[in-house]
Design brief:
Length: 460
């Protein structure tokens, strides 16, 4: 029943408006011209609202002329409200009505005329349009005009003309998040993309973040995409895009870049094991991403090819230490002898590629079998040196060999020379000998004393 009354009231009001327009301006074109003229006379109020906010559009009407108002969207001709009733089906629109009792002083043209203050009363009714949860499609021109007018009254047709601008802060599309991981191959190229929506259209700017120092560098690049070429395996940066349009808050998105590359092998110099005196340790450092599979090979002279070392072979023991992007692999050779001298190969492979490096133990023969002790002997003269050559010996496999070597020139003041005797305790034997010159002096003294004593007793 109420809806029927509203519709009848609305039809009568529209008829009254049309009648008035035709009364003032015969002809339909003249009526349209009248409306445009009214709009041109009315000051356009510009208002801005952000998506999700609420906004109120004001419209004040003199109650002595007309007790009602109609709100419409001018661009699409949609009637929103009639007086205090909502016509549109959108529940976000409503009318907030209130009245103000105004008293206006009478203005006297002659300032010298002395009269008591006189006022007239005039009630102003506000039909304010409230829009809740503003959306982008609410941007429009909103017109507030009389709902019922009389043809003999000189009052404005349009009381309020508001141009509502709607803004929206930037936001990424639903498929994007604030964090993203992206991967590329060494020496290749990757494309980072950021797509943001907002009103006005957001600008996207790119930054580089050094993870080791935390320093942020502006790349001075505004675009929805960023191309990174010639990727390096040492890449240690994050990238960030920031979307902004002057409407807070701005949004940002970070990209963590991972560079995949084939293995790179560095060899560790072979050395004797600390835990076992007759073991040798080989090693290689494999730098790769993703992680590589490491295999050890030794060269088989009989077949002239490399053969993989069996993990069950007790002669060889493996140990692996993993770090972030590199792996250290050790190969321990137990009971190492000269027969183990040869070539060993460290090989690594991952999904990107493979690499290998060869260790030739023959190149480290002197290092692996070097003497472990050195004895320094000082000789005062050539006689002591010759005696030492005769008395100091090194025996290996029952073969008499001399290991004396002069390591410095004789001191001109003391006439002393420095010699060294070296031996390997693993394979060589050393005889601890005494200085023969001291033994000869001692024997000579003993013999001299015995001769003197014999002569003395013979005389007696």
């Amino acid at each position: 029943m109420k809806l029927s009354i509203l519709l009848i009231y609305f039809i009568i009001s529209l008829s009254e408006c049309r009648r008035r327009l035709h009364h003032r301006h015969p002809g339909y074109r003249h009526a349209l011209a009248s409306i445009k003229e009214e709009e041109s006379k009315t000051n356009v109020i510009k208002m801005t609202a952000k998506v999700g906010e609420s906004v109120i559009l004001n419209c004040a009407i003199n109650s002595s002329f007309n007790p009602g108002a109609i709100w419409t969207q001018a661009k699409i001709g949609n009637v929103l409200t009639f007086n205090t009733n909502r016509i549109t089906v959108d529940p976000r629109f409503e009318i907030i009505q209130h009245s103000i009792h105004k008293e206006e002083e009478i203005i006297i043209s002659d300032p010298n005329q002395i009269v008591p203050k006189q006022t007239i009363t005039n009630d102003v009714v506000y039909y304010n349009l409230k829009i809740e949860n503003v959306q982008l499609y609410d941007e429009n021109e909103y017109v507030c005009q009389n709902s019922i007018t009389k043809s003999d009254e000189d009052e404005p047709l349009i009381h309020s003309l508001v141009h509502l601008y709607v803004t929206k802060s930037p936001s990424f599309v639903e498929s994007q998040t604030t964090e993203s991981n992206i991967a590329g191959i060494e020496n290749g190229e990757v494309m980072l993309k950021c797509t943001a929506a907002g009103k006005p259209v957001p600008k996207i700017r790119w930054y580089q973040i050094d993870e080791s120092t935390g320093m942020i560098t502006d790349l001075n690049h505004e675009s929805t995409s960023l191309s990174i070429r010639n990727l390096s395996k040492y890449e240690n940066n994050k990238y960030e895009c920031v979307a902004s349009n002057g409407i807070l808050p701005s949004v940002s998105k970070k990209f963590t870049l991972t560079v995949y590359f084939s293995p790179v092998i560095s060899l560790i110099q072979p050395h004797l094991s600390r835990s076992s005196t007759n073991s040798v340790v080989l090693g290689c450092v494999v730098d790769s991403n993703p992680e590589s599979t490491i295999t050890w090979f030794n060269f088989n002279a009989n077949y002239s090819q490399y053969a993989s070392i069996d993990e069950l072979d007790l002669k060889y023991h493996r140990n692996t230490i993993k770090h972030s992007n590199h792996t250290i692999s050790y190969l321990k050779i137990a009971n190492f002898t000269s027969s183990d001298l040869g070539q060993f190969k460290c090989a690594a492979n991952n999904v990107i590629g493979k690499s290998e490096n060869v260790i030739n133990l023959n190149d480290y023969k002197e290092l692996l079998f070097k003497p472990k002790k050195t004895k320094i002997t000082i000789f005062k003269n050539e006689h002591e040196k010759n005696d030492a050559y005769e008395q100091y010996s090194i025996r290996q496999n029952s073969d008499l060999r001399y290991g004396m070597r002069k390591i410095d020139h004789a001191d001109p003041k003391t006439n002393q020379s420095y010699f060294s005797t070296r031996f390997n305790k693993n394979s060589l034997k050393y005889d601890n000998l005494v200085n023969t010159s001291k033994k000869m002096i001692s024997s000579f003294l003993n013999l001299f004393i015995m001769i003197i004593l014999a002569l003395k007793y013979s005389r007696v």
